[in-house]
Write a structure and sequence with these properties.
Layout: E1 7-10, E2 16-18, H1 25-31, E3 38-41, E4 58-62, E5 73-76, E6 86-91, E7 100-102, E8 105-112, E9 115-122, E10 125-135, E11 138-143, E12 146-153, E13 156-161, E14 165-171
Antiparallel strand pairs: 1-2, 1-3, 4-6, 5-6, 7-8, 7-14, 8-9, 9-10, 10-11, 11-12, 12-13, 13-14
Length: 180
C-alpha cells in the first residue's frame, strides 16, 4: 500500500500525529503501532495486499472502491448530496487460506479477502464449506448442518459449533499463511 498527500494520522483522543505523510506500507505500519491510531485517506490510496494489514483494521473510502476486494459495508447518500456520495468500509480479514487440522480432519479453505470457500476432508469424505466469512479475526462457516463461529489467532482458530459445542483448529505443520 502506498499513501501520499492528503493522508492524516490521528492518535488516541484526537491527538494529531502529523499533517501529511508520504511513504510505503511499512511507514504506515510503523505509524499504526501507536494504540488507537487510524489512517484517514483523503485522496487515492493503493492497497497492494490488504491481507498484509492488521486483521480487524478498518479501511474507509469516499467514492473509491478497491477493485476485487468487495466492501463489507457500502452507504450511498441520496438526499442533499451531489457528488462523492458513496462511502465504502472494509475490515481487514485474518489470513486463513491453507490447511488446518480440526478434530483429526483437514479443513482446507481458500480465501479471497474476507470470503472463504473449499472443503473439510473427513477420512475419504469431502464436505463443502458454506456461508463462510471473515470479519477481522472473527470467522464463521457451516459444514452440513453444523454452524461454526470463532476467532483466528495466528496458527489457531477456536470457537463454538451450533452455539454450544467447542471447536479448535490448528494450522497444519507444513503450512504457512497463504492468500489468493
Amino acid at each position: 500500500m502506498r499513501y501520499g498527500s492528503g493522508i492524516g494520522l490521528r492518535g488516541p483522543r484526537g491527538l494529531s500525529l502529523g499533517q501529511q505523510r508520504h511513504g510505503s506500507l511499512q511507514d504506515c505500519r510503523d505509524d499504526l503501532r501507536l494504540p488507537g491510531t487510524a489512517v484517514r485517506a483523503v485522496l487515492h490510496v493503493d492497497v497492494e495486499d490488504p491481507l498484509e494489514l492488521k486483521p480487524g483494521m478498518r479501511v474507509v473510502s469516499n467514492s473509491f472502491d478497491m477493485g476485487d476486494w468487495r466492501a463489507d459495508e457500502t452507504v450511498q447518500l441520496t438526499e442533499g448530496c451531489s457528488s462523492y456520495c458513496i462511502a465504502f468500509k472494509w475490515i481487514v480479514p485474518a489470513k486463513v487460506a491453507g490447511t488446518w487440522v480440526i478434530g483429526g480432519n483437514r479443513l482446507e479453505p481458500t480465501q479471497t479477502f474476507q470470503m472463504l470457500e473449499r472443503t473439510l476432508r473427513e477420512g475419504g469424505s469431502v464436505h463443502p464449506i458454506s456461508d463462510a466469512r471473515l470479519e477481522g479475526d472473527r470467522i464463521r462457516f457451516s459444514i452440513g448442518k453444523d454452524h461454526y463461529v470463532g476467532r483466528v489467532e495466528g496458527g489457531e482458530m477456536r470457537g463454538t459449533v451450533n452455539g454450544s459445542g467447542v471447536w479448535r483448529a490448528t494450522r497444519a505443520a507444513d503450512q504457512t499463511p497463504a492468500t489468493t
